[in-house]
Amino acid sequence: MRSNLFKCAGLILLLLLFPFHLIFSQEEKPPAPVSIYSLGQQSLSISAGLFVPLFFMSFDGTLSDSTNLYLGGSGSLQWGVHLDNHWLVGVEVAGMFSPSVQKNILYMLPITVKGAYSFHVFPFEFPVFLGMGLDIVKYRDQTHLNFILKPGFSSIWKYNVSWGFGLNAVYWWVPQPWSADPQKARMGNFLDITLMAQYNF
Amino acid sequence: MKRYVWPFILISLGLGLASFTLSCTDPALDPIFYALEKELPLEDDKGLADDIAVQRIAKTGASYFLAANSLYTRTEAGTWSRIEPPEAGALCNSVEIFAGQIVAGFVRENGTGLGLWQSSPSPISWTAISNANINAVGVQIVMLKAVGTNLFISTLNGGNYDLYYTINLSAFSNANWVNRSTSYGPISDVADDGTIGTSYWVTQGPYLYQDTDDTTPDAFVEYPGADKPASEGKPFGGLFYSAANTALYLSSGNGKLFSWNGSSWTASDQLKIDSKVVPFSAFLELPGGPPSDMIVGSKGYGYFQMPGGSITTSGLVRSPSYNISALYNGAINSFFLDAALNQLFACTSGAGLWRADYVSGAWQWKQE
Predict the structure, then answer these.
(1) Half-sphere exposure of B41 toward its Cβ, with a 13 Å CA cutoff?
(2) For chain B, does the N or the C end have fewer beta carbons within 10 angstroms?
(3) What is the per-residue pLDDT across B209-235, written as a single tens digit (0 to 9) for each?
C-alpha cells in the first residue's frame, strides 16, 4: 500500500510538472499595427550636416575630372502634412556652402516640394522621399536658377509621440543647361548627410 | 486627402517652371559648374604678400626686379627677396633697366624724395645719379620709362611734375614744354609713335602732349588737332606703340580707348560696367600677329582683351575668368611680358603680383 501511495504521489507530481500549456496553447496573433499618423497631422523638421560634392557631368555623359570643391555644410527646414500613417507631403527650404580650390564659396539654396513614404518599425521610421523644385545657385558674380531633384531617405528614432531624431542622406541632382554654348552645360551631383530633429503636432 | 496633395503638386510645378523661365544669369560669364570644373589653384607662393601694391616689374638676364614699396628680386626659378635700399628704410616704387643698369627711384619713410639711383644687377651696389635737378633734396621719382634710346624720368618737386631724359645716365636734359596746362598732374606715360610718325607723346593728367621731333624730345605742345583725344577731365592711363598693328594706343580714365595711325586719332565708344565708367590703365601687346592681340588694364575691372588690337569697346572681353576674383576686380598698374618664357605679369594695387603661363592655348593665372 505504501509503495502504491508513493507511486500515486510521483504520478501526480509528474502530471503537475508536465508542460500541458504547450499542448493546449494557441498560436499568438501579432499585435495590431500602431497607427502613428493620421490625415492632417503636421511635422516640422530641421537638419544640419555635411555637404559632399560628387561630380559634374556633361549632358553627353562625360564625367568631369573634379568638381574642384571641398567638403562643405548644409542645412534645411521642412514642413509637412501627413496624408495617412505612411504618406507625407511637404515643403523644404535648404542651403549649402562649399569652398573651391580658388577659395571662393559656392552657395545653393533649393526650395523643393517633397513627397515621402515612411516605413514603420517601431520605434523607428524610415521615410523614403523625393523632392523637386527650384535651386538658386550663386558663385562669385554669377547666379543661376536651376531645376533640382532631391531623392533621399532618413532613419528616425521616435523618442516619443512628438519628437524624433535621426539621420538624412539626400542626393542633389542639378542640371545646368547653357543655351549660349551647350558644350559648357553641366549636371551637378552632390550628396548631403545630415542629422535631423523632427517635431510632430 | 486630395485637398492636401493638389497644392503641393501645383507648387512643385510652379517652382520647376520658374527655374526654366526666371533668370538672373549673366550670359557673358561662364556657367557656374563649368567654371568650377575648369578652376585651377591660384597660389604659387614666391614669397610676396597677396595684398601688396606692385608698381612695376623689369627683367635683365635671368633676374626680375620688382618695385612694390620695396625693391625685390628673384631669378626665374627662385623666390622674391628684398633688396636693401641705399638708405635704411627707404621705399621704392619705380624701377627700369637701362644701359645694363638697374635704375630705381627711392623715397624716405617720411615722404621726402631720395632721388634716382643706379646699380649693376649683381651684386647690388647703389650709386646716386649725379644731377642737380633729379637728385635735388626732396625730389621724388614718379615714373621711369625706357623709350627707344632714351630713359625718361618724371619727377615731383615742390608740387610740380617735370620730365627729363637721358641716353647714358650721365647727362640729363629737361623735356621742354612750349605750352603746358597750369593744372599739372602726374606725368603718367611716355611713348613714341615708331615707324608711323616722328613724334614723342606724353600724358600728364587729362592732357596729351606731342613733340614732333622724335630725335630730341624738348618741345612738347598740347596736341592741337580737332581729333584731340578727350578724357573729359579724367587722367589718361597709358600709351603704347604697336609695330605689328601700326598704331599708337592711348587709354583714358573716362572709359575710352584711342589709336593714332600717324596722322589722326580715332576714339572708341565709352565702356561702362554696371553704369560705371571703366578707367583704363596700361597696355600690353601679346605675341603673335600681325595684327597682334592686345590687352588693356583697368582700375578695378581687371583687364580687357583687345582682339587684333581693335579699340572697339563692343569687342573687348573682360578678363580673367570671374572666379579669379582678385584679378577680375583688380586695379592693374602695369604689365610685363617675358617673351622668352611665354609668361605674362600683372602688377596690381592691393592684389599683389600675378603671373600667367601660356598653357594649351590659354593664359593660366597664378598669384605670386
Answers:
(1) 5
(2) N
(3) 999 876 788 888 999 889 999 999 899
Q: Which residues of A touch B327 (CB under 8 A)?
A: none
Residue B168, amino acid: N
Contacts of B328 in chain A (CB under 8 A): 141
Residue A165 pairs with which residues in a beta bridge? A157, A197
At A145, list the grid cell: 536658377
Map residue A132 onto helix, strand or coil.
Answer: strand
B339 touching A, CB under 8 A?
no
Q: Which residues of A touch B45 (CB under 8 A)?
A: none
Decide: B299 and B330 in contact? Cβ < 8 Å.
no
Does the CB of B3 have a partner CB in chain A at under 8 Å? no
For residue B1, give the nearest of A39, A101, A174 by CB distance. A39
Give which of A149, A165, A131, A191 is closest to A43, Cα–Cα.
Answer: A165
Q: What is the pLDDT of residue A89?
A: 95
Rounded Cα gap, residues B239 and B284, in angstroms = 10
DSSP conformation letters of B129-175 = ---TTTTSTBPEEEEEEEETTEEEEEEEETTEEEEEEESSSS-EEE-
Please report which helix (H) or strand (E) contains residue B234, including its range. Answer: none
**Does this complex have an ipTM over 0.85?**
no
Q: Is the pTM of this model over 0.80?
A: no
Q: How does pLDDT run across B336-356, given as a tens digit for each residue?
A: 999 999 999 999 999 999 999
Question: Searching chain B, which residue's CA lies closest to the CA of residue A143?
Answer: B25
**Residue found under cell 622674391:** B80
- Mean pLDDT, 10 residues at a time, chain A of 201 residues: 57 59 54 71 96 96 92 97 93 97 94 95 94 95 93 96 95 95 95 97 91
